[in-house]
Amino acid sequence: MAQITLDNLAHSYLADPASEDDWALKELNHTWEDGAAYALLGASGCGKSTLLNIISGLLMPSRGRILFGEQDVTFAPTAERNIAQVFQFPVVYDTMTVRDNLAFPLRNRGHDEAYVAERVGEIARMIGMEEVLNRKARGLTADAKQKISLGRGMVRKDVNALLFDEPLTVIDPHMKWELRTQLKQLHHDFGHTMIYVTHDQTEALTFADKVVVMHDGRVVQIGTPEELFERPEHTFVGYFIGSPGMNLIPARVEGNRAYIDGAELALAHGYGAVSGRVALGVRPEYARLSATEGLPVKVRRVEDVGRHKIVRAEFFGSEINVIAGEGDEIGADMTRVAFDPAHVNVYADDWRVSPEEAA
What are the ABC transporter domain coordinates in residue numbering (predicted)? Predict the structure, then answer.
């Protein structure tokens, strides 16, 4: 296992990048803790796989260094990094049995057959493939082959890191939950450093100790699921995490007051005079409809999703969402919306403003 340090790391697929837009991975300076489970989360094309491939050695960075512990591995080949990587689509040896596929990484490192048999048995139970250990991989379904890939990645206990690049894409939904649970258990049992790339917020939030949110080639926040939900450091995090995502409302902020199209809203903290492109960020969970309190709002429609209702509304020209309880009545007189002041975030040019920094 290893602490992973990204030191002034950046990458461009162009030979001579001339502007910031030419960098697929913008400068990163982060240290990831030894033995922690991280998820790299973001939309397609944000740089997740580029970063993972640099960590694994499949891609040499244009700039900066990557260290495993104290060792600089920036230009070390993958074989020397002692990592295991599982890709989006299954990579298996079709002519081998399931047993031999799982055993291959151990035999390749000279482990005795008694240990190989014991470890293969453990992993086969974990991925639910005990009954097919003696079958050839050829002819198995795509999700069965991907389970073999996952098992082969997990079979070694001595790796510096386990890297997963959207590994559950071809797995059926029921099995996804089961395998995520098993990966968490593996992490609990053996303490590997794990990095899991996904565009699925549910996968990220249920798997990781900390989620690394990427946007446009940049890490915009590293935090626990609670931190990402309660205090998104960038508007993209607020939008991407949550269903529906955070409401963004253009406003003017002065001290502990916000002004929205002339209407005044009290804030829980003072912010001084905030400049730039200013917006309030409010989760739908912290907004409520009222007949008497708050600011005027126009309800457009109500969507009942079973466990709660999503109210789609218009608020001073901005579309906002409000979460209401499944049993709540949405009356025609509910033409106002109130926000919980303690859960209103302030943003300037997409970045969260801290009250202490803005004074």
Answer: 4-241
